[in-house]
Amino acid sequence: MKFKIPNNFFIYIFKPFFCKMKYGLFLFILFFSISAFSYNIRVEIANCPQYLIYLGVHKGPDFKVIDSLPAVNGVVEFKSDSKLSHGVYFIVVPPQSRFDFIIADDQNIVIKTDANDILGQMQISGEKQYSIFNELQKEIAIINKRRTQLTMELEFYKSFMPDTVPIINNLIDSLNKSQTLLYTKYKLKTEKSDFLYKILNILEPFYVPEEIGNMQYSDPLTHYNYYKTHYLDRVDFTDESLLNTPEFIFHKLLSDYCFYFFDTRINKPDEVYPDIDSLISKTNSNIEYRKYILNYLLSRYENPSDLRLEAYLVYIYRNYFMVEKPEWVSDVAYSVMQFKIESIQHNVIGETAIDLNLPDINGDYYSIYNIDADYKILLFWEPDCDICNETALILSGYYPKLKEINTEIYAVLSGTETQEWSEFIDENGLDWINVYDPFQKSNFSKYYGTYKTPRIYILNRSNKILTKDIKPEFVFDFIQNHNKKIIEDRNRFNFIFGE
Fold it and tell me: In 3D, which of 337, 350, 314 has the Cα closest to residue 457?
């Protein structure tokens, strides 16, 4: 889905007449031609099919279609009286062809190519960096073709000639290194002020001084902190046009940064929060970067595969949205954010669960905190929900084994209708702690996010949330594995300290 333009267009069309014009008239016409269109992209495609041709711009993993026009005899001109932002743009030639090009200051350019060999035949006028980008793409295309061929061979030889697998992997690694060397090669052909230079600066391998690199094993903390502090130095955070690039450029760099320096440290989120602040502070001088990075962080941590990462989402919401609503956030979006933060801020994995002291059908009250068990399973459900019923019955099957490892279940009716609830409990022999909130005063829906049911939480003896939204058939294994890890950690501690 991810998917250039005559340079000096007026001169290109009217060149035969220029030699007959007086100098003053020439300047007037030239000024008029440049003022007529702020961008003018003429695309000439030999053997062009009779389809609409599309002009668009990359936006990380997304894209924006700017215009579409029919090609007349293989020629289409995209033009407007407003300038385009610098960025990596694309032309789509249906049904299956697409090519990228860059746009910087010169936005009157011509692209010539052939539909039968779009990249191989492509020529582009305009700034020097435009043609450099074109040359780079052609070299990378050769590498990609060879890499695809080797990947196919690798899959074949895995089964029939496994001894060749290391050889093919080495060839693929060599191609990968060749591609990174191309970034440096072409970067040296550009100027530091060029948009292409800034792109290649991101794509180049991260440079680590030799003295820092040597600390990888002798002083790993210093080595790690150097990476964390300087990993994003290659980004010009004053130039928002770098957001107008394909996913593998700035977006991937941001993704890698979050993975290596945030996600891998989730066991100590308090140590990560200052680094989240440091990342966001890089956007202080550019609102577009701020919007992009904050939106990216929300998207990354809103529904993470590892629910412990919701801690980051809560931190970002509280500190960058709830304190003061950003101007660029609509009222509707802000309301959704408020609902989201309300539903998760009290039940983040690793935090202490909020106590509930609720009655059973006989009026006897039970507190979560007063349950004398090594593990406490909280189940929020209602009997008119088929998935809830299935969840309760699966847990019921494991309940005897759970009792053997000192685990209790505290099941809360999430609705208010008690007859069907009590009948289901009696019919299925659910003899764990069954409670409800007849007057809806405990705010359990707020504390445990029961806008969706069923929900399962597992707490330890200290009421710390170990996990949540786990499938009922995995509950017993989770607790057993957690117990095993505690024993292993204790034995390791005793071995190290001789206790």
Answer: 350
User: In this structure, are residues 240 and 285 in contact, taking their beta carbons and an 8 Å threshold?
Assistant: no
DSSP run (H or E) holding 175: helix 165-187
Name the nearest CA neighbour of 196 among 205, 188, 185, 187: 187
What pLDDT is attached to residue 28?
35
**Who contacts 250 (Cβ-Cβ below 8 Å, separation ≥6)?**
60, 202, 235, 242, 243
Does the structure show a pLDDT above 90 at 34? no
Record the tokens describing residue 227, joined without a space. 């990476």
Token output for 188: 């040296």
Partnered with residue 64 across adjacent β-strands are: 57
197 is written with which tokens? 């230079």
Question: Angle formed by the axes of helices 310-317 and 331-344, to 10°?
Answer: 130
Q: How many CB atoms lie within 10 A of CB 17?
A: 10
Query: In CATH, what number does 357-486 get?
Result: 3.40.30.10
List beta partners, residue 60: 246
Backbone torsion region of residue 126, taken as left when φ is above 0, otherwise alpha when ψ lies between -120 and 50, otherwise beta = left
Say if residue 342 is exposed, middle or buried (CB neighbours under 10 Å; 0-12, 13-18, 19+): middle
| pLDDT classification of 23: cutoffs 50, 70, 90 | very low
- Among residues 370, 342, 345, the alpha carbon closest in space to that of 358 is found at 370
Q: Cβ atoms within 10 A of the Cβ of 493, count? A: 10
Share above pLDDT 90 across residues of the chain, in percent, rounded to a whole number: 81
Second CATH level (architecture) for the domain 9-126: Sandwich (2.60)
DSSP secondary structure code for residue 300 in this structure = H
The structural domains of the chain, with segments of one domain joined by +, span 9-126, 138-199, 206-344, 357-486
Measured between alpha carbons, how far is residue 388 from residues 409, 411, 416 in Å?
Answer: 15, 11, 15
The CA distance from 123 to 113, in Å, is 6
